[in-house]
Amino acid sequence: MKAVGTLALLLCALSAGGYAQGSGCNNGTITGIYMFTITGQILTPPPAAGPATGVALTTFDGAGGLTQVDHVLHNGVSPVEAWRPATGTYTVNPDCTGTFTFYPAPAAAADNSPALQVYFVISQGGKQINAVVSGSPNTPPFTAAILSTGTRLYNVP
């Protein structure tokens, strides 16, 4: 009888653990406003190559849409527009990985850049996003090694 009780307890524990792992992530996991730090380098093509450092404020709507403003220094040069706006889309996978694509929409033409493809991993139940910019889905493509860490500031409905 004791063995049956122990087996039942073990099965309940395994079932609860499996449920927690199976629940995973979705687009709603990163609903809210996040502050990102950005550091790295654009590798190619040569005219754009150089170090990049900055900050961004990104709002995820929980349904796959985002808006953002950023201030990024490229080769040590400040942008013409203090806060460059962008819009985009994102997809979160059940394993808490995902991608987002940003489409910059600056008022100053000098601050325009191609769309950015970003790969990320969500941690701490959606409180943190670790991301890497690897390039652009646009033509001409560029390659980059830019790391970014985002922390949720506010959760918005």
Kindly describe this structure.
This protein has 1 helix and 8 strands. It has one helix at residues 2-23; strands at 32-44, 50-60, 65-74, 84-92, 97-104, 116-123, 128-135, 143-154. The longest helix is centred in the N-terminal third of the chain and has 22 residues, at 2-23. It is mainly β and 157 residues long. The protein has one domain (27-154): Lipocalin (Beta Barrel). A hairpin with a 5-residue loop joins strand 1 and strand 2. Strands 1-2-3-4-5-6-7-8 form an 8-stranded antiparallel barrel.
By secondary-structure content and strand pairing, the structural class works out as mainly beta
Spatial order of the strands forming the largest sheet:
1-2-3-4-5-6-7-8
**What is the assigned CATH homologous superfamily?**
Quinohemoprotein amine dehydrogenase alpha subunit, domain 2
Helix content: 10-25%
Shape descriptor reads: globular
Number of strands: 8
Characteristic key phrases:
single chain; disordered N terminus; globular; 157 residues; Lipocalin; 8 strands; mainly beta
Summarize the structure.
This protein has 157 residues and is mainly beta. It has one domain (27-154): Lipocalin. The chain is 14% helix and 50% strand.
Helices and strands, with pairings:
Elements: H1 2-23, E1 32-44, E2 50-60, E3 65-74, E4 84-92, E5 97-104, E6 116-123, E7 128-135, E8 143-154
Antiparallel strand pairs: 1-2, 1-8, 2-3, 3-4, 4-5, 5-6, 6-7, 7-8
